[in-house]
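Please review this one.

:::
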Amino acid sequence: MSGGSYYVPTTSWWPILGSLALGVMMVGAGVKLVYDTGALLMLLGVVSIIGVMGLWFRDVVRESMGGLYDSQMDRSFRWGMGWFIFSELMFFAAFFGALFYVRTFAIPWLGGEGEKGVSALLWPDFVAHWPLLSPPDASVLGPDQVFSPWQLPLVNTLILVTSSITLTVAHEALKLDERITCRNWLAGTVLLGCCFIIIQGVEYYEAYNHYGITLEAGIFGATFFILTGFHGVHVIIGTIILACILVRICKGHFSTDHHFGFEASCWYWHFVDVVWVGLFIFVYVL
């Protein structure tokens, strides 16, 4: 590659294979939700996505380590990652918007308040409040109780905030070429991510078995699991990404001025942390 040229990757099947794998996973998930079957199809899609991602990233790493990327390619990666995070922001904004709409408009209307308070005629005995432990339709059972924000949710908040600090320390150490320090702090970040996932799993077990919070527990259960569940998936993905970056650090990849793979993982992790702070405030505290 000569100076100032732009690297054009060779023909790759990974984008189309990744799309097909995603389609298989979504079809399996849809069949599972509607007919309570399709688990194997969904699992096949998930495994296929992981396989495609692993092989695709392998090619990208080889191209990067081969010196094929110049400053223009670096800008392309940065713009791509920036737009990806923006799309994720809009993804969560839609769910936060749904929660805001339900709490601010729909429930008060059903309670007789606001410009559409006539909706209260549907269930005249309904009392508007949040968290909604008693849905207006008697056929829908609400949760027995809700989580205290100052127990497991607070612990997970402290874990994620701490993980952002440890990741920042690791990033700064890499920029100073202190690779052992970078490796140790990054390993600590991965460990904190694993702790968050475990605690989230414990919380879900408690929700289903002791709190009556399920996907069928009215609007509260639905919004709770949609928001925290999708965020949990992002934490799992982020932890896997950081673990891969840790392996690359141990192999001597990256330099003080050429480490966008590390930097992109930092962007993603900090975004996930910020979303959790919003979840903690609007789902658990308020």
Summary: The chain has a mean pLDDT of 89. The chain has two domains: 1-69, 70-285. Residues 71-110 form the longest helix (40 residues).
